[in-house]
Amino acid sequence: HRPIFVFKAHHAGVNDLSVGSSPMSSTPMNFCIYICSVSDDQTISICTLYISVYSSQLCLKRSCLTVLQCASDSPLNSIKLVLDQSTFHQIYVSGHDEQISLFKLVTIEDGQPQIKFVSSSPLGTDGSCLAC
């Protein structure tokens, strides 16, 4: 079997993934899948897949890759996507610099998601696991 969709998110290997889905509108037949990743290249990458359901089959309407380079002063090793329909989708990342940073995923007028920095603070551990 061959994959139906492939994208290159980083120049180096991927250290962590976080995946979530969110409705695009009031109908459950249209939704987005967010695939978030971090790497030693200090980059946050988010591939957004816009999906529709037609006659019980999934249809990939479009996709876009959003990349924030130099998101940290050190290699990144953990990412966690928290979906929140009432405000904005939150992205937490940590790396070898023992900082946890909060970013928000916002959609601009053309529908392209953007990653915006919100805040950063010391993590106090090795930063290897945001889910711990």
In short:
This protein has 132 residues and is an all-beta fold. The protein is built from no helices and eight strands. The chain has a four-stranded antiparallel sheet, with no helix packed on it.
Q: Name the helix and strand elements from N-terminus to C-terminus, one letter apiece.
A: EEEEEEEE
Distance between the termini: 35 Å
Instruction: Estimate the mean pLDDT confidence.
Output: 87
What general outline do the C-alpha atoms trace?
globular
Overall strand count? 8
Count of discrete alpha- or pi-helical segments spanning 4 or more residues: 0
Bin the helical content.
under 10%
Main beta sheet strand tally, sense and closure: 4 strands, antiparallel
Radius of gyration: 15 Å
Strand order in the sheet with the most strands: 1-2-3-4
Pick out the low-confidence regions.
none
Strand content: over 45%
Query: Class by helix and strand content?
Result: mainly beta
Features:
132 residues, mainly beta, four-stranded antiparallel beta sheet
Notes on the protein architecture:
It is built from no helices and eight strands. The protein is an all-beta fold and 132 residues long. The strands form two sheets. It has a four-stranded antiparallel beta sheet with strand order 1-2-3-4, with no helix packed on it.
Task: Give the helix/strand layout.
Blueprint: E1 14-23, E2 30-39, E3 44-54, E4 57-68, E5 76-82, E6 89-95, E7 99-107, E8 113-122
Antiparallel strand pairs: 1-2, 2-3, 3-4, 5-6, 6-7, 7-8
